[in-house]
């Protein structure tokens, strides 16, 4: 069966790849949106922290024999803790300065982290085995669906929607949003705002690390994996609206699908279609599709 002269198997295969890419776009842009929306920090270290998540899972497997499932819990905690240290020791000193200083600091940290791992492990990808429970796949008739890729899509969607619910629909989320608008008032209610800010940054970093663990069996573990992805993820955040949680989720998945379909109908534009969309959105709606105009 063909659609517009293209076999449906090829089209569905690219849609699956687009959904997988979109899952990582959504997870990473969600972490960026949480950090920017609640802390007003443009975190250029996010790609390096995604890479750290993959390498941490790889090292736990190689050195300690700790497999994929425990790593899904341990790695976000470990890498999130490094994010807490970065916020306390470095970023907290810059809150009263221009936002450009925070951007430059996180960009420099990203280069340092990537350089350390590149010098130690080189630029080639290192294999990371997927769990035995998710090997194989299912024949849907029109395509073959690998179990691990289906797991990545479903898990990413659940994590993204759960994060949105906590921030937008719970008392904790209300405190977080209030702390960004009027920290003195929130502090007057007995809430430790600096600790809340630190834990929020750590949570955003943990989301990036979790995405790294989930990406490792698909893309392999490489010092460049974060650098290759972070520019696209920033474009996703800009299109969805800086700081918009739902905007990051919807835009991440949608742009992954658009990128996949572009590879079917016009492969030459697949590497630039997201940036073309970003330029159009910025011309029409500078605050992004889900952003608030100010």
What's the structural blueprint in terms of helices and strands?
Elements: E1 2-3, E2 6-7, H1 8-39, H2 46-64, H3 68-89, H4 99-121, E3 137-139, E4 144-146, H5 147-169, H6 171-181, H7 183-188, H8 193-219, H9 225-240, H10 245-265, H11 273-284
Antiparallel strand pairs: 1-2, 3-4
Q: In short, what is this structure?
A:
This protein is mainly α. It has one domain (2-284): ABC transporter involved in vitamin B12 uptake, BtuC, CATH 1.10.3470.
Note the total helix count. Answer: 11
Structural class: mainly alpha
SSE string, helix = H, strand = E? EEHHHHEEHHHHHHH
**CATH second-level architecture:** Orthogonal Bundle
Largest sheet: 2 strands, antiparallel
- The coarse silhouette is globular
Give the proportion of residues in helices: over 70%
Strand content: under 5%
Question: Can you put this structure into words, describing what you see?
Answer:
This protein is mainly alpha-helical and 294 residues long. The protein has a single domain, classed as ABC transporter involved in vitamin B12 uptake, BtuC (Orthogonal Bundle). 72% of the residues lie in helices and 3% in strands. The strands form two sheets. The chain has a two-stranded antiparallel sheet with strand order 1-2. A two-stranded antiparallel ribbon has the order 3-4.
Distinctive features:
single chain; 294 residues; mainly alpha; ABC transporter involved in vitamin B12 uptake, BtuC; two-stranded antiparallel ribbon; 4 strands
């Amino acid at each position: 069966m063909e659609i517009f002269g293209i076999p449906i198997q090829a089209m569905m295969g690219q849609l699956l790849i687009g959904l997988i890419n979109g899952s990582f776009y959504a997870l990473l842009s969600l972490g960026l949106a949480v950090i920017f929306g609640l802390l007003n920090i443009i975190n250029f270290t996010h790609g390096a922290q995604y890479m750290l998540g993959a390498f941490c899972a790889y090292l736990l497997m190689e050195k300690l024999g700790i497999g994929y499932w425990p790593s899904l819990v341990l790695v976000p905690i470990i890498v999130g803790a490094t994010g807490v240290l970065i916020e306390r020791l470095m970023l907290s000193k810059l809150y009263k300065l221009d936002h450009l200083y925070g951007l430059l600091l996180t960009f420099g940290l990203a280069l340092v982290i990537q350089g350390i791992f590149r010098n130690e492990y080189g630029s080639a990808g290192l294999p990371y085995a997927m769990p035995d429970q998710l090997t194989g796949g299912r024949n849907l008739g029109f395509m073959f669906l690998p179990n691990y890729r289906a797991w990545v899509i479903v898990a990413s969607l659940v994590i993204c929607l759960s994060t949105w619910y906590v921030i937008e629909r719970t008392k904790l989320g209300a405190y977080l949003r209030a702390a960004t608008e009027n920290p003195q008032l929130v502090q007057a209610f007995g809430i430790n705002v600096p600790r809340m800010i630190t834990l929020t940054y750590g949570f955003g970093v943990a989301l990036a690390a979790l995405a790294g663990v989930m990406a490792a069996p698909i893309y392999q573990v490489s010092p460049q994996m974060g650098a290759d992805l972070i520019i696209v993820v920033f474009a996703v955040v800009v299109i969805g609206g800086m700081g918009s949680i739902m905007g990051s989720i919807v835009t991440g998945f949608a742009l992954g699908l658009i990128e996949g379909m572009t590879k079917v109908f016009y492969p030459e534009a697949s590497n630039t279609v997201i940036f073309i969309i970003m330029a159009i959105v910025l011309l029409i709606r500078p605050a992004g599709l889900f952003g608030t105009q100010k």
